[in-house]
UniProtKB/TrEMBL annotation:
Organism expressing this protein natively: Actinacidiphila acidipaludis
Endonuclease/exonuclease/phosphatase domain: residues covered: 6-261
Family: Belongs to the DNA repair enzymes AP/ExoA family.
SUPFAM superfamilies referenced in this protein's UniProt entry, alphabetically: DNase I-like
Pfam families: Exo_endo_phos
Protein name, per record: Exodeoxyribonuclease III
InterPro entries: AP_endonuc_1, Endo/exonu/phosph_ase_sf, Endo/exonuclease/phosphatase, ExoIII-like
Molecular functions per Gene Ontology: double-stranded DNA 3'-5' DNA exonuclease activity
Recorded superkingdom: Bacteria
Keyword Magnesium: yes
Record-listed E.C. numbers: 3.1.11.2
Amino acid sequence: MLTVTTVNVNGLRAAGKKGFLPWLDTTSADVICLQEVRAEPDQLSAELRAPAGWYAYHAPAAAKGRAGVSVLSRREPVAVRVGFGAAEFDASGRYLEIDLPHAGTTVTVGSLYLPSGEVGTERQDEKYRFMDAFHQHLTATLDRTAGDADGHAVVCGDWNIAHQEVDLRNWRANQKSAGFLPEERAWMSRVLAPDAWRDVVRDLHPETTGPYSWWSYRGKAFDNDSGWRIDYQVATPRLAKTATTAVVERAASYDLRWSDHAPVTVSYDL
């Protein structure tokens, strides 16, 4: 069994003070993908930078205090790569992947923090450029693993797009909002085209509204479960078929949250 968790920590130093470390001590995950770390490695305490029992890899953003992704693995990977070959984004702290040997196969696990965007601004244009470039990487990875009987891949992270109406509570009011724009949803549909990548959580919960993974800190969004499902594990078809469980680790109450996102955990029976 290979258990993978992804979570946007909304600042790892802040999460470390709110409950991330106790969660890390009790998780059963073999690999953890973190997004929005927002810190250089030397700004992290030793227990956050290199937790005992984990191999830790960090890809901070060139823009200080922004973005940043990390991967923690209980087993040492055979390769670690920062970025995906796009010059504009490889120093942006938005993608890191490892190749992990497991049960006679190699599993590529990527941690993705896709730009959030903002309608009518350069931030949205940047998001679209990122999406175009990253889709090329996804296509190349899919082709590579399809030709390798022992190759698998899963891209985990904050994709900042709710794909379908069931993926956010207030979808009617957000049809012109970044994260639920027609262009973004169409791009997600291309990623998840038949015989392409699989949305593992949706495959295991096809009739479920949500399960949401992000709730605004404003108002009573968390208490009312008025959330968005924007944190995904998107896997190659053969790996997706091995997924047995998918759980959003929603905090029991508002005061127990250590991020505005919840961990999304999937177990693969390879």
